[in-house]
């Protein structure tokens, strides 16, 4: 079977930080006119947060019925490889090689789009390995699925009455617009025949009333259009943001936060495209057909000339549209990167200032912004050429029609009224045709934004089935051979961990950096699901519990906390009506933050800036601790969460949670905070290396002994502790 191919390799933009390999496979599939979605390819490959290897890409292409081969070659050797091929790039990336010659190469970089690079740059950046593959006899290209627009139609079509009103008033307005030339035709023909001044006067009055009615109907249409825009905006934004809040934590873990923000803010495209373009576009199509029929009935010759010019316009748009669509993809990708640098810089401004790297950050932003401007300039220049040509056709076409109609008027085939009507209608015809082309182009280009929004709404939400158990837990927690890997292709970061934690116990988890402590904490609160084993709360497996209901009974205080752009009072109470100011003050006194809050001009009503950036790290941490005290969680996870407290207050907080029977799991970096733990677990490379009390572990002189020794840097103190 001969497989059809495209003229060029289509570009696919990555929406996850580590999916450049998946994008490359997607581009090659589309080159062979097979339209697997990115979601389908992600499910096949399961990239996770660590990316993919060339071997994994080969295995996926084999699975998709490609005959593949991995080459180890120099840049010169790439000339003998069947293209397109996937190249290992700069030792950390994948690109598609589309074309190569003695002087240059054309690559599709998932991060930057199509690039023409010198052979020298190819030699410097190509990392010796290439994957080439061609479809075999079992290959069956997948047809295009439904348009991404269909995912949004149920969201925006609930107010059918508004659409009907807008359609009715739009149709009436169009008929009034089209009726004007016909009325003028009859007026001119009648005046030429009757030469009656009274008829002219009556016709002028009628024309005035005609204009008033036209303006009135247009006003009503536009009023309803505004209502529709508000309705679409509300529905789309509510749906997208509501869905975004309910997707699994993994979604955010493998995506750039600024990319997610950029995608969520793309909702305006649906409002503008659907409200402005779709309804008008459909009515414009109807108007074009109506005018075409009327012109054909009036003069076949003039109608055929108009249709021929329309055909030239259509071919021009069809030829340039794929190129403009690709430009739109590049531009959107660059725009997202520029915003990413800006957002990252604003939230990291303290580190930037402390490191005095403002110039470096600005240079990085300038490069990305320069790349954006370059692509914007290219797109607009091409757009300008196309629009100039279309505008020229639009202006010249009625003149051509007028010249031809005058010549046939002289021969007596049409009346002067028909000449004027045809000229006026042809102007409207070409204007509406241009509008139809613009609508088509807008819908195609807006698909770039919709792909990003689709990435959000097509991601499955966390399981919130009614069959899940809503249980008030006591604080007993058990882990049975729990393992976890970020993807099915990556190594396990938690390996066969078994624990039995009883209600009210204080359990500490220690280990070197990267040993899996924070990952284990996220597993315990259900942010990740184990890939093996079970986590049980009061003997009930986590996957059978309603996670939302469960998390309301859990507390987690991370080392690096962020707060909401609300008052301190609201950040602590979190909307609970059963909490009064006295309780909040008491919680703040326990966490040693009350005095600092009360010294602020607005006290507990002081507004915290975004992410809590107007407070110190210690203040943010203590506010979150105060929130945890008020919530009285059954299980509390503390990730070095008391580092901002002195010893007395740290003990006060610890005793408070102990007295209410709260199970505490402490991820410790400062070992002095965990000496009184009921059990200390030593984690190494995702496995439990040792466990026991502080004294038991010191006596064994294992990994904990070394950590404790390094922590205090006082071997004598350690030996004295062991002797005691």
Automatic annotation (TrEMBL):
This protein's GO cellular component annotations are:
plasma membrane
Swiss-Prot/TrEMBL GO biological process terms: proteolysis
User: What PROSITE patterns does the annotation carry?
Assistant: ABC_TM1F, ABC_TRANSPORTER_1, ABC_TRANSPORTER_2, PEPTIDASE_C39
Per UniProt, residues of the ABC transporter domain are: 477-710
Location of the protein in the cell: Cell membrane
Instruction: Please list the residue ranges annotated as the ABC transmembrane type-1 domain.
Output: 166-445
What organism, scientifically named, is this protein from?
A: Clostridium saccharobutylicum DSM 13864
DNA-binding: present as a keyword of the record?
Answer: no
Q: Which UniProt keywords apply?
A: ATP-binding, Cell membrane, Hydrolase, Membrane, Nucleotide-binding, Protease, Thiol protease, Transmembrane, Transmembrane helix, Transport
Where's the Peptidase C39 domain?
Answer: 14-133
Q: Which domain of life is it from?
A: Bacteria
| Transmembrane portions of the chain | 162-184, 204-220, 301-319, 385-410, 416-437
UniProt entry tagged with the keyword Glycosyltransferase: no
What Gene3D superfamilies does the entry give? Answer: ABC transporter type 1, transmembrane domain, Cysteine proteinases, P-loop containing nucleotide triphosphate hydrolases
Bilayer topology:
Multi-pass membrane protein
The record's annotation in CDD domains points to: ABC_6TM_T1SS_like, Peptidase_C39F
Q: What name does the UniProt record give this protein?
A: Toxin RTX-I translocation ATP-binding protein
The Gene Ontology terms for molecular function here are: ABC-type oligopeptide transporter activity; ATP binding; ATP hydrolysis activity; cysteine-type peptidase activity
């Amino acid at each position: 079977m001969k497989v059809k191919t495209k003229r060029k390799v289509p570009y696919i933009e990555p929406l996850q930080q580590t999916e450049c390999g998946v994008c490359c496979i997607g581009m090659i599939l589309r080159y062979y006119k097979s339209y697997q979605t990115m979601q389908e390819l992600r499910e096949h490959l399961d990239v996770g947060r660590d990316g993919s290897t060339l071997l994994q890409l080969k295995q996926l292409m084999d699975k998709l019925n490609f005959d593949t081969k991995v080459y180890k070659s120099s840049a010169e050797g790439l000339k003998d490889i069947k293209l397109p091929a996937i190249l290992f790039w700069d030792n950390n990336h994948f690109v598609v090689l589309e074309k190569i010659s003695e002087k240059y190469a054309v690559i599709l970089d998932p991060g930057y789009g199509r690039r023409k690079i010198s052979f020298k740059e190819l030699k410097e950046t190509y990392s010796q390995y290439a994957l080439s593959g061609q479809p075999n006899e079992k290959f069956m290209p997948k047809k295009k699925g439904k348009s991404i627009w269909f995912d949004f139609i149920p969201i925006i079509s609930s107010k059918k009455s508004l659409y009907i009103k807008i359609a009715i008033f739009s149709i009436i307005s169009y008929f009034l617009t089209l009726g004007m030339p016909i009325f003028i035709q009859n007026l001119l023909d009648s005046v030429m025949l009757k030469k009656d001044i009274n008829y002219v006067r009556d016709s002028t009055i009628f024309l005035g009333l005609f204009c008033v009615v036209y303006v009135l109907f247009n006003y009503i249409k536009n009023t309803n259009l505004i209502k529709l825009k508000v309705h679409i905006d509300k529905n789309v934004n509510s749906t997208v943001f509501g869905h975004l809040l309910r997707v699994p934590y993994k979604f955010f873990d493998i995506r750039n936060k600024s990319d997610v923000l950029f995608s969520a803010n793309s909702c305006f495209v649906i409002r503008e495209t659907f409200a402005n373009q779709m309804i008008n576009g459909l009515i414009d199509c109807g108007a074009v057909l109506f005018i075409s029929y009327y012109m054909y009935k009036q003069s076949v010759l003039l109608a055929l000339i108009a249709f021929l010019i329309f055909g030239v316009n259509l071919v021009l748009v069809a030829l340039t549209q794929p190129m403009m669509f690709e430009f739109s993809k590049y531009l959107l990708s660059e725009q997202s990167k520029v915003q990413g640098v800006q957002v990252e810089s604003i939230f990291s401004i303290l580190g930037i200032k402390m490191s005095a790297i403002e110039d470096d950050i600005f240079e990085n932003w300038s490069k990305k912004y320069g790349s954006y401007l370059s692509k914007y300039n290219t797109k607009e220049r091409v757009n300008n050429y196309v629009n100039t040509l279309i505008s020229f056709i639009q202006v010249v076409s009625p003149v051509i029609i007028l010249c031809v109609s005058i010549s046939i008027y002289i021969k007596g085939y049409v009346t002067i009224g028909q000449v004027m009507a045809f000229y006026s209608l042809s102007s409207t015809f070409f204007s509406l045709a241009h509008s139809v082309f613009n609508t088509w182009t807008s819908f195609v280009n807006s698909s770039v934004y919709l792909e990003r929004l689709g990435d959000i709404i097509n991601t499955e939400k966390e399981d919130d089935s009614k069959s899940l158990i809503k249980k008030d837990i006591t604080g007993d927690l058990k882990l049975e051979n729990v393992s976890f890997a970020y993807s099915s292709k990556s190594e396990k970061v938690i390996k066969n961990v078994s624990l039995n934690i009883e209600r009210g116990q204080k359990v500490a988890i220690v280990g070197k950096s990267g040993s899996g402590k924070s990952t284990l904490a996220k597993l315990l609160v259900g942010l990740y699901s184990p890939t093996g084993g079970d986590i049980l709360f009061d003997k009930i497996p986590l996957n059978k519990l309603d996670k939302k209901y469960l998390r309301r009974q859990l507390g987690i205080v991370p080392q690096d906390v962020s707060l909401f752009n609300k008052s301190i009072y609201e950040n602590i109470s979190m909307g609970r009506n059963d909490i009064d100011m006295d309780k909040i003050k008491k919680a703040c006194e326990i966490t040693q933050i009350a005095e600092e809050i009360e010294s602020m001009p607005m006290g507990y009503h002081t507004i915290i800036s975004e992410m809590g950036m107007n407070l110190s790290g210690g203040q943010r941490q203590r506010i979150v601790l105060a929130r945890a005290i008020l919530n009285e969680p059954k299980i509390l996870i503390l990730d070095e969460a008391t580092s901002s407290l002195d010893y007395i207050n740290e003990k006060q907080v610890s005793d408070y949670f102990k007295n209410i029977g709260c199970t505490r799991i402490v991820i410790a970096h400062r070992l002095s905070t965990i000496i009184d733990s009921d059990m200390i677990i030593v984690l190494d490379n995702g496995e439990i290396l040792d466990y026991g009390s502080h004294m038991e572990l010191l006596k064994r002189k294992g990994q904990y002994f070394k950590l404790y020794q390094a922590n205090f840097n006082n071997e004598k103190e350690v030996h004295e502790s062991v002797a005691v």
